[in-house]
Every structure is written in C-alpha cells, then in structure tokens.
User: What shape does this take?
Amino acid sequence: MTIRFVLLVNKQGQTRLAQYYEYLTLDERRALEGEIVRKCLSRSDSQCSFIEHRNYKVIYRRYASLFFLVGVDGDENELAILEFIHCLVETMDRYFGNVCELDIMFHLEKAHFILEEMSKSQGYTRMVDCSFTHALMFEREDCSRAMLLSVHIWFVMSFWIKEMGSSTSML
Amino acid sequence: MGSQGSSKDFLELVKAIGEAKSKAEEERLVTEEVEMLKKKIAEPDVPRKRMKEYIVRLVYVEMLGHDASFGYIQAVKMTHDDNLLLKRTGYLAVTLFLNEDHDLIILIINTIQKDLRSDNYLVCCAALTAVCRLINDETIPAVLPQVVELLGHQKEFVRKKAVMALHRFHQRSPSTVSHLIPKFREKILRDNDPSVMSACLCALFDLIVTDVHSYKDLTSSFVSILKQVVEHRLPKPYNYHSAPAPFIQIKLLRILALLGAGDKKASNNIYSVLGDVLRKAEPSGNIGNALIYECISTITAIHPNVNLLESAATQTSRFLKNDSHNLKYMGIDALGRIIKINPDFAEEHQLSVIDCLEDPDDTLKRKTLELLYKMTKSSNVEVIVDRMISYMKSLTDAHNKTDIASRCIELAERFAPSNQWFIQTMNQVFEHAGDLVPPKVAHDLMRLIAEGAGEEDEDADSQLRSSAVESYLQILGEPKLPSILLQVICWVLGEYGTADRTHSAVYIIGKLCDVAEAHPGDDFVKGYAISAITKICSFEITAGRKVHLIPECQAFVDELSASHSTDLQQRAYELQALLAFDSNVVSTILPFHASCEDIEVDRSLPFLNHYVQSMLSKGAKQYIPANERLQMGVSTTWINPQDESAVSNHSLRFDPYEKPQLPTMAITPVTTFESEDYIIDRSGKSSHVAHQPPDVDALTPEASHLRLEGVQRKWGRPTHSSSSSVSSSAGVERSTNGSVASDLDKSIGSKERPVPQDSKYVSSKSKQPEVSAEKQKLAASLFGGVAAKADLSVKASGRSQKQATASKHSPAKRVQTAATVDSKIQAPPPPPPPDLLDFGEEEPSISISSRDPMKDLEGLLDLTDTVAPTQPVPVVSTTNLSTVDLMSLYESNIEHGTGMASSDNVVDLMASTKPSRISGDESILEGLSGNLEANAGSTIQGQVATAARKGPSLKTSLQKHARSRQVGVTPTGPNPDLFKDLWK
Assistant: This one.
C-alpha cells in the first residue's frame, strides 16, 4: 500500500538520488537498482510505464536523461503514482529553476528534502502536500506576490530563503 | 545556480561522478573518495559547514554502493547543530544511513527530544520527520508524549507531521498509540487545515483496513469531505493541474471502498458522491484518469449500483480502446474488477484483451494473464493454461516464473478437464520451472498418479498410469530436466513402469540407470533411481521371474554401495539383499501398488515395553518427556519467555537522570550490599529483579545499577535478534538473485527463446484477415463470445496453426473442444457460479480431489515409509547451494552490461547533439574555472593528478562538462522542456 523507494537514475544507469523507506543492505540496493534500471532502459516509450519486479511494482517516468522510479507494493493506483512523479519534478523545477541532473547532484541534500516533504516523508502515504510544493516554488519567484496568497506559505518560504542565503555564503 | 556555497573539492567530485562514463570509473572515483573522507573526517576541528559537505559526500558514497559506516557518527553529531539546515542535513543523513534498529539511534533520541520541544516550529518539523524514520518499538515511549503534545501545535505543518509520526508508531507497534484512536476520529479528522486532515486520512485508512466495523459511522463524514473536495472547497494550492486535491480524493475513494464493501446502507450514502467524482474528473489527463480508475475500483468494491456500474463499464471501455499502454493497463485491471460483478462484460472486450495478450510489452502481457487467471473456468482452462505456460517459457526472472508456475498449478488443480491433461500440464510446468515449484506439488502429482481419479474404476486408473509412464519415457529424452521432475519420473517408473507389461523390466532399469548417470551430483535423484530399481526388481521376483542385473545397473549399485552418502549406501545394500530372497518374502516387503495404503504407526511403541522394563529393573533411570524436563529447569532456555515479559515491562528510559545526591556515609555500605545482592539475583533468576518497582530505585544513587539492567537488555537481546533477521533476509535475497542468474544464463545460452513467438507475431500481423479469424477463435475459446458465427473449419485450421506450440493435444480433440465451445455459445452460457470468480489467495483445490493438508502429510509419510525418499527440506537447501555461487557471475554481468550500454549512449549523444546554448550555469562554470585557476598554483599534487586524468587540460574538462550538461539535461528554451513527454 505504500511507496517503498524513490530512485533517480540517469540513462547510463548511474544512481543520482535514492531514498528507501525500508531497510535494505547496500548489496541488496545495488542489485535491485541494477536490475530495475536494466529493465526500464530496455523498454520503449510506447510501452507502459509500469514494471513488476520481484514483489515491487515500479512506476517510472523519463525526463530528458533522468529516470524517476518509484517502487510501490500492493495494489496502488499506478496513474496516481505517475502523477506524483510529475508533481515531484514540477516542484524541483520550480525550486531549482529548469532543473537538470547536475542541479540534483550539486544539491543532493535539498533534493532529498523536497522528496521527504512531498512523499509526506516515509512513503507510507503518498499524498502530495501541495502547500509545501508551493512554498518551495514561490521562493524563486516574487516574494510579495506570495505574501498576498498565504501567510504560512510565506513564512516557510522566507525561512527557506534565509537558510539558502546563509548556506550560500559559506565559503 | 548556487553551487557557490560548496568547496572546490565537492564540485570536483560531483563533476567527476557526473562525467564518469562507466560503472568501473565511478567505482574508482568513489573508492578514492572514501579514502580521502576517512582521513578528512578524522581531522580535528573541521568547520561545521565543511563537515556538512563531508556528510553529503558520504551520502554520495552510500548511494553509489559503498560502505560509509566510518562516518555515521559524524552524521549523528550533525543533528546536534543549532543551524537548522545543518541539523536537517544531519537528520537526513542519519535516516539514509541507519535503520531503525541500529545501535547509534540511541544517541539521537536525546536530540530528538530536545528538538521536539523547540520554539522554532521548523526544528520541530525536522525532528518529526526524523522520528518517522528512526524510532523503533523500544524508543516510541521516549518521544510519544511530546509528539502527542505537538498534535495541538498552532502550526499546521507541525500538526500534520505529528499525525504522520503517530501513524508510523501505529504501524510499528499498534498498542502504543491505541489510546489515541478516538482523538483521531473526532478531532484530527475535523482539523481546519486540509493537510492535517489528509495525513489523518492515511492513518485512518490503515485503521479501517484492519477493522471496518468500528468506523462505519464515519462514512458520512468521509462522503461530505469528498464532496467538498470535489466542489473545489479546498484552497487553490491543493489543486493539481486543475484537479481539486486529487491525491486526497483518491485516498477518500479507497476508504469509501472499504467502508461500502458488502454494506448496502453505507453504499447508498456513497453513490451520489461517486457520480460527482466521475463526472468532474477530466478524462484528458493522467490525473483525471487516475481518479476515474479509482472510482471504478470503488464502484466495483461496494454494493453494486446499476447506473454507476454502467458508467464504470463505459470508462473501462475507453481505457481499453485508448492507444496509451498505460491506460490499457489500467483498463485491463479495471476489467478484472468489473467481471467479478458482471462476467458477461468481458465478452464485449475480448478482442482488446487478446491484443493486450499478444502485445510485446511484457507488463501488459502479464497483467492480461492475471486477468485471464481471474476469469478461468473449466471451459477455457486449457487455452489459458496453455498461454501461461508458453509465457512462462519466455521468462527469465525467477520471481515471475515462480508466480506464473504456481498460478498454472492452481488453475490446473482446480479446473483440469481430465487427469491426462493435468499430468501433461504438470509435466510442462515442471519441465520449465522445475526448481521453482514447491516440492509439495510434486508429491501431489505422484499421489494423483498413484490414487487415480479416486473412483473405483481401476481400468481408467491404470490407463492413466501407463499414459504417465509413456509421457515420462518420452520426456527423459530431453537434455536438461530439473531435479524435482526427475524424482517424480523415477518414482512413477519404479511403481508403474512395468505394470502394463509394455516395457520390459530391463528397459526401464536401463532408463533409470541412465537418469542416475546423467546426474552424478544429485543424491536425491540417485536415491529415487535406486529405489525405483529395487521396486522393479521386487515386482519381477514376485511375478516369479529371475532377475539378472544388467552390467550398467550392477555398476551403479556398486558405486552406490561405496557412496559417501549413507542413505544411498543403505538403499544399494537393501537392493542387493532383496535379490537374495524368494518371491514370498519380497512380495511382503515391497507389495505392488501399495503406495496409497496407510501404514499405521503406534507412537507408544508397545513392542519396546519389555525391553524398557528389563532396563529399569537393572537400575536405568526413568525417561522424562521433553516438556517435563523443561519445567524442571534442566535446560536454560526456559528463562526466555519470562525474560521477554520483563523487557516489555521494563523498556529503556529516556528521561534524564535526576541530579545525583551526595551519598551520605550511612548509605554507602547499603549500596555495596545491594549491588552484590543484585548481581546474585541476576545470575540466579532475573525475573526477581525485573519486578522491582523502578521508581523506588530511581530515588537512590544505585539507580544507575538498575539502568544497567535495562541497557544490558537493549544491547543484548534485541541487537542479537535484529542481526539474525537481517542475515536471514539477506540469505533469501541472495538465493532469489542466484536463481535469477541461473535462469538468465539459461536464456542467454539458448538465444532462440523470444524468436518463435515474435516471428509468429509478425507473420500474423502481416496477414490481416487470417489474424482476425484466429483472434476471434482465441476469443471464442477464452470468452465464448463473438466468434460464434465464424465457421468451424476455419477455426480448426486457424487453431492448429496458432497452437503450433501446444502440439501435445491431438488436433481432433482441439476441434472437439472448439465445437463444444460453439454449442455453448449458441445457447448463451449461464453465468458461472460466483465462487469461481472469487479468487481468494489460497483456496483448497476443488475439482480433482478435495484434499486436506493432513492427508497430504500422511501421503508423504506413506511414501517415505515404503520406498521413496521424500525430504523436502534438503531439496530446497541443495537448490540454494547451487544458486549461491552463480551470484558472482551475475554481478559481473550487470557491470558489463551497464558499462557497455552507458558508453554507447554517451557516444550516441555526443554525435547527435551539438551544444547550442550555454545555459545559466555558465556562470558556475566560470566561477569554477576561476576558482580552479586561482587555486591552481597552490593545489596539492594529487588534485593536479586527478585533473590531468580527466582531460588534457582543465579547460577541456570544463568544456566537456558544459557539453555533457548541455547534451544531457539542459532544456533549450526558457521553459523547461522536461515536460514535453507529458503534453505530447
């Protein structure tokens, strides 16, 4: 009934981000990633975006060179997960601005934060918290506009800006 | 973009990883990185922000598959930091690195407690996020009160996360939070903030799954929430692509499906809102279709409503007819749900279903087979199982294969039209998935052959047996057979090989020797073979014929008598001894066809009474049964149950120690005395200590001693159990991997696997008219539908063409089945009884023989007692052994594969795209190069070396970087083109 892992893998099969919501050893993760990625890479665009692997169902979506893979168990609404992925990408895109593989690589921890918030952390629920999504997205846009919309969003947003500001002046 | 905050090292690393063209190169980079980090992290006084970067690098190291355990402690330390970003990074790293039962978790509890009390609500959020991932059963009590308190926090973010944390606690250990359930139902569900409410829905969903009846009263609340959501009452930010809070809608629909299932009254409340959702969902986008699909699931789950079912059916047709494979997939799934209620609905879509079945897309094919599995009945079982088996042959993945094989077996057991067909089918299953089939199935098959149809018709039974013998003699010609099938073959040949006198004993014995010879490493097969030979010899002797062992058989017997396995030795000697007896004796030892007779075992072993008496009179001790021995305390294991209860009473305490009072002189001697006492207690019986009231001790300085006890448990038992569970799961994982590997190898070895099917597929496509006839026929055999008008002769020819793979059935019989199907169509088939469609997980087999598990066990006993060595457990272990070493092969396989693929890809990309636009991150690159140049003078040699390796100069490497970025990911327009696949 839940999301078990989220993986970002590029076309070369290199992992770019991995969050597991259940514990797997390093070797198990490696094997799993290798197998799933190989399966996904071998599929064409016209085939459906779902594969079954062992006891997981993997829903994947490709954006340019990056594959976003979400592993779920039980009977999930696959289309909804597909849209969850899209929502995640939209959020990242708004946050990073034209997100690309390198953005995620250079800001791995922030990509993780976004994912943590969006998968409502811990994966046992997959409702997207839209308020957070939008909090992130306004950070890059005009602050005053955001303020008009919602006070709490603005709070979060301004906090993030402050944090990011302090992190950027590190060296 | 803001990579300014990171050090040059970090940028270098990320860039190098990004540019790595193969797994091998990546490995090398990461190994170097690990060495470097080990040194750097150990340095004293690393600035905090620098440390954060190291931790992110550790995350990289683990993500790329290397062990970073040397740095875990740094991540733990980072959680203490005051800076929120650093703290959150620390928590993140800890959640990524550690599992809930890791020993280091205990060090974070205190920090989490502090953070949960923080004034800054974002700190609370960070801590709650970590709580969800890091808290295990034992540590729940340490944070529970604070989390509950946060349910009343003024910030909805905090409330939401607190709800999620409690939900997590409930999943870990329901009893700890059960007292909060009323609060969830009453207060939190009615929270003003939708995000809190939605988190609560997730928790309630889990609760409702386990106990529907206590939540029926909430049905109307859920309905009204859903109504409001559909009417766009939620704030705009919850919309997703103009759909109002679709994820919340989906959750609500699932809850309603549970509440309405089989409950007419509740369902009546739900109907209208379901109609609303269906109407408002936009069928053009994915999210709309996701909603529609969820509606279909709900409509089919609750008490049926004609109108809704009709619209569900229309939507399903739309899915099935859509070109998108995703929608087809959902359509097939929805169809599977609808036919549970209305089996006739499938007929309308039979051609779409067959299209999906023949689609090269593996996922779709699998899903369709699943659907077929759900609609199997005795009229179409042959076609469906046939399809499944041919699909199974094409599979390389052990997990899927096991799945399909077990389904084939289940269908065959339930719907088999004849025993003959059943045996044929089982043989095929064994042949292609032998090692993946549970041994029980093989025993069932042997049992079926031995017992026959169960009626008194001996002729039919012996006919069945001789046909089984014939088919097995035929199969024996195949080069590679799984061990379990060979065991069945040996057993059947031994029991019934000579029964109908068509084959001579010498011929059968020769075959059996061949089998054993071809499998020198398999002791089980050898054991079965020698027992079979023994049986045949004894039947010969019973029949009054002289038995001369043929030379190769004699050699085999000689070999076994010198075997390392005592089991095989014994069998060989038994055979030799048997040959010396006359027919009377032999017929008592091994009577013909006696495998089904019950052997009664008197467990009290009365024939030994005399011996026991005499030993007792000689002064031997009385035997004490095992359970009495336990109670007498001879064994140490009896402590465990009590110990466990002690643990549950006495969990770890996380509240801070009280300030120690200076011990006065008077107390000191008492202290030492008590602690001694305590030690004695522990060694004697721990239960006594465990029951001491804890608060009494807490007041005195000796409290630390008592804590010691708690700590002892913490580090003692749970750690032990967790490690064992991990290792065992690893074992399982490995074994499945191993078998995947073996199957892969097989498929690679014989490349022909996909070819026949594909070519057939292509050729059938090129001949359009014939295809449709063919498909209609298949449809007819599956659904009993439209093909009624197609004439019979076309059918027969089409079928024989189509079923080239399934040549096992005679064409005449095929026509016959087609005819019967047709006749059924003319008189519309009565809907099958609902129980056929009700596919519970494990139903007892209905048709062939209603077995009960105990009987099966008895059957096993019989077999072992008479002749056959049936030891399921060792069989499993040998398969494990054989698969384990394949693991290494497999791993190298992966690396090769991806390595090659990746380099190809890169070359492709380089060739096909030219850098047309240097995007905004040019500035980083400039900054980066400036940085590099500035530092170039002072860099350590090692860094120069890495730079040199990457390219002739820094400049070229940077260009390459820009290009790879350009090529790989940067969109060309001002708007991200990442989404283009969505809108196409």
User: Anything to note?
Assistant: Residues 494 and 532 of chain B are 4 Å apart (CA to CA). Residues 717-749 of chain B form the longest helix (33 residues). The mean pLDDT of chain B is 71.
